[in-house]
Design a protein that fits this description.
It contains 3 helices and 7 strands; from the N terminus they run ββββαβββαα. The chain starts with 11 loop residues before the first strand and ends with a helix. The chain has one domain (14-159): Nucleoside Triphosphate Pyrophosphohydrolase (Alpha-Beta Complex), CATH 3.90.79. The relative contact order is 0.25. With 162 residues, it is of the alpha+beta class. The strands form 2 sheets. The protein has a 4-stranded mixed β-sheet with strand order 4-1-6-5, sandwiched between helices. Strands 3-2-7 form a 3-stranded antiparallel β-sheet.
């Protein structure tokens, strides 16, 4: 069976994770390299695009389906970008958003959060700096549009106001 994709319905799907340090509740942000095409030298949270290899080579969980694909992307991306593992039991949903990329293709971002397992942060080549910040401190960084809003949403969720 051949599947034909309608390009008018295609989307890029990106999954990000706000890491919350358990000792003080601060959030991990990282600065993108100045050579990055999208948002050079701006601060963000770890994440990356969903790739078919994130599930296609795995055994299906139920019939024709795979579960926890977004969670697996987040685990992979956090390990690749900041060299941390996360506690899978702490992964939770923050929000989602859609934007139109410069090439006209819609992009969907699914924002999750998780608690990292202790370890040494080692940044990938695409990131140049990192910081653990609270909401007030995050205002001092040139964050990619929407990141501060996501930090606010998560902060409200964590303190029980949402």
């Amino acid at each position: 069976m051949t599947i034909v994709y309608d390009s008018k319905k295609a989307h890029y799907i990106t999954v990000t994770a706000i890491l919350v340090r358990p000792s003080d509740g601060k959030f991990l942000i990282a600065k993108r390299a100045d050579w990055e095409k999208a948002f050079p030298s701006r601060w963000t949270v770890p994440g990356g695009k969903l790739e078919s290899s994130d599930y296609i080579y795995r055994k299906k969980d139920a019939g024709d389906f795979w579960y926890n694909v977004f969670e697996d992307v987040v685990k992979r991306e956090i390990k690749e970008e900041v060299n941390l593992d996360i506690d899978s039991s702490t992964i939770g949903y923050v929000t989602s958003m859609v934007f139109i990329r410069p090439d006209g293709v819609p992009g969907i971002i699914v924002s999750l959060y998780a608690t990292p397992i202790e370890g040494e942060i080692k940044l990938c080549d695409a990131l140049t700096e990192y910081a653990w910040v609270n909401l007030e401190e995050a205002k001092n960084y040139d964050l990619i549009e929407g990141i501060y809003d996501e930090l606010e949403i998560l902060n409200e969720k964590l303190i029980g106001n949402n």
